[in-house]
């Protein structure tokens, strides 16, 4: 079975089929069909886990056929330990977002649900593409549905935010296209990414390629100082858009470093590791401090995402097993935790229509069940042991100490900052006496919202208590990538 193709095209086809169903009376039908498409998209990823061989770093579930024969472009798919978990994670978050958006979206429901399903398939395509041009097509195509989600269903400044999102990410990607074409020429007319890994390049060539890829991937993560688009986009995007953007789309850039920058330009990656570590630490510390003073809940969580993704880029450029595996674990954990944080903010926004922290206070008195879930997610965001947020950060800190004790100390400050902004927000919004009549009138979460919260809580706790299924898949591929980088240095 072509499981990877199914994981890509089932949600895309389901999304396209929803587009004609735009009559007012068809909204409920659209919601159920969208849920069916999203669940089916998740189900077709399950055989990937049962059939995955953790003992090899080779690509698995490979599919390859000619696409544009004149330029030797292939429809070439495959996953290894570096990319595997992002396929089911993308499908899972899509199901959660469809359920979470059930009542909050009332206009153009078919287009909204269709955009998310199409986006889901395109993002899976990015994680599974083994052809450089195919990767670039999927990578750029993800911008279109997200641009529409922000620009059509976003907040008061949605057009500005959508334009900023599109412009930042597109401009960075143009240099990536130049690098892809250059690699095609020097490799004798091949877009095969795995063959590029073995392509001998001078340090000068590697440096240009490294920074060309950096232009796209650093913006997408986003790394400091090209992170300024993210808070604006999160504030204006609808709740589902923020959840998918934080949980999955930021990971596209981080994954690009693993699949392109590190294996294709290993010498340049090591040459400029100091720069990447410095930028990552600035994101972890400075952006963490910025998060503390935010007055908008979404903006606070957006800045916290930049800080958490700083851990990811830091772990990659430590060049040790703990750091790189920890960074991958952090990517998956951040997918669960950030989605949970944004969806929790969405629950409050649906009731009060404000994200200002000052507008709340004492929510625990009127929404005790919801406040319990919000506390768990805030603790996970702060990196509490036994939650998903702890595992990856702890591994990266250990890897940082192996690399340099000073880097380890600086990285560890993130745990203090994370606790500061997460718990301060929780205290101001949820604890104390009820401050106003709007909070006094709040209703606790309904059965649908409870389902979303329970599922995310289970994921956050399971990964925090038993991360072995996640790390087992990664270990062999991480070791293989590190050996490839070390071998390049020896030569």
Short description:
The protein is mostly helical and 491 residues long. It has helices spanning 3-18, 27-43, 46-50, 86-100, 109-128, 132-141, 143-153, 158-186, 193-197, 203-220, 229-236, 239-264, 266-271, 273-292, 297-316, 321-352, 363-366, 368-382, 388-403, 405-430, 437-440, 447-465, 468-490, and strands at residues 60-68, 73-79.
Give an account of the 3D structure.
With 491 residues, the protein is mostly helical. It contains 23 helices and two strands. The chain has a two-stranded antiparallel ribbon. It is globular, with a radius of gyration of 22 Å. The two termini are 41 Å apart. The mean pLDDT is 87.
Produce the secondary structure layout.
Elements: H1 3-18, H2 27-43, H3 46-50, E1 60-68, E2 73-79, H4 86-100, H5 109-128, H6 132-141, H7 143-153, H8 158-186, H9 193-197, H10 203-220, H11 229-236, H12 239-264, H13 266-271, H14 273-292, H15 297-316, H16 321-352, H17 363-366, H18 368-382, H19 388-403, H20 405-430, H21 437-440, H22 447-465, H23 468-490
Antiparallel strand pairs: 1-2
């Amino acid at each position: 079975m072509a499981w990877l193709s199914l994981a890509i095209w089932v949600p895309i086809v389901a999304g396209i089929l929803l587009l004609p169903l735009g009559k007012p009376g068809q909204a409920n039908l659209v919601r159920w069909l969208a849920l069916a498409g999203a669940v089916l998209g998740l189900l077709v990823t399950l055989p990937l886990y049962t059939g995955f061989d953790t003992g090899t770093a080779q690509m698995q579930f490979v599919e390859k056929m000619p696409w544009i024969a004149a330029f030797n472009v292939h429809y070439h798919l495959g996953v290894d330990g570096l990319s595997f978990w992002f396929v089911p994670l993308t499908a899972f978050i899509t199901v959660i977002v469809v359920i979470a958006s059930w009542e909050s979206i009332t206009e153009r429901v078919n287009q909204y649900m269709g955009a998310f399903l199409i986006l889901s398939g395109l993002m899976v395509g990015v994680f599974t593409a083994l052809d450089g041009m195919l990767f670039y097509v999927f990578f750029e195509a993800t911008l279109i549905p997200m641009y529409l989600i922000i620009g059509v269903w976003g907040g008061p400044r949605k057009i500005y935010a959508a334009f900023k999102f599109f412009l930042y990410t597109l401009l960075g990607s143009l240099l990536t296209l130049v690098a892809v074409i250059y690699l095609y020429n020097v490799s004798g007319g091949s877009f095969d990414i795995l063959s590029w890994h073995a392509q001998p390049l001078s340090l000068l060539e590697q440096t240009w390629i490294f920074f060309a890829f950096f232009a796209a991937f650093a913006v997408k993560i986003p790394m400091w100082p090209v992170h300024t688009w993210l808070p604006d986009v999160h504030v204006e995007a609808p709740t589902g858009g923020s959840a998918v953007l934080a949980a999955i789309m930021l990971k596209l850039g981080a994954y690009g470093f693993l699949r392109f920058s590190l294996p294709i330009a290993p010498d340049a990656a090591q040459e400029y590791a100091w720069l990447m570590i410095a930028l990552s630490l600035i994101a972890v510390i400075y952006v963490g401090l910025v998060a503390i003073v935010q007055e908008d809940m979404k903006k606070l969580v957006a800045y916290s995402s930049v800080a958490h993704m700083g851990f990811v880029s830091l772990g990659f450029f430590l060049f040790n097993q703990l750091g790189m595996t920890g960074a991958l674990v952090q990517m998956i954990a951040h997918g669960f935790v950030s989605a949970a944080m944004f969806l929790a903010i969405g629950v409050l926004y649906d009731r009060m229509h404000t994200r200002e922290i000052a507008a709340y206070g004492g929510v625990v008195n009127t929404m005790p069940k919801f406040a319990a879930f919000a506390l768990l997610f805030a603790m996970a965001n702060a990196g509490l042991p036994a939650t998903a947020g702890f595992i990856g950060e702890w591994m990266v800190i250990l890897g940082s100490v192996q690399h340099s004790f000073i880097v380890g100390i600086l990285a560890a400050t993130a745990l203090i900052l994370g606790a500061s902004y997460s718990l301060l927000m929780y205290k101001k919004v949820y604890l104390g006496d009820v401050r106003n009549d709007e909070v006094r009138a709040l209703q606790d979460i309904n059965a649908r919202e409870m389902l979303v919260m329970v599922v995310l809580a289970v994921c956050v706790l399971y990964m925090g208590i038993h991360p072995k299924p996640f790390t087992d898949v990664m270990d062999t591929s991480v070791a293989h990538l590190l050996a490839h980088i070390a071998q390049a240095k020896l030569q």
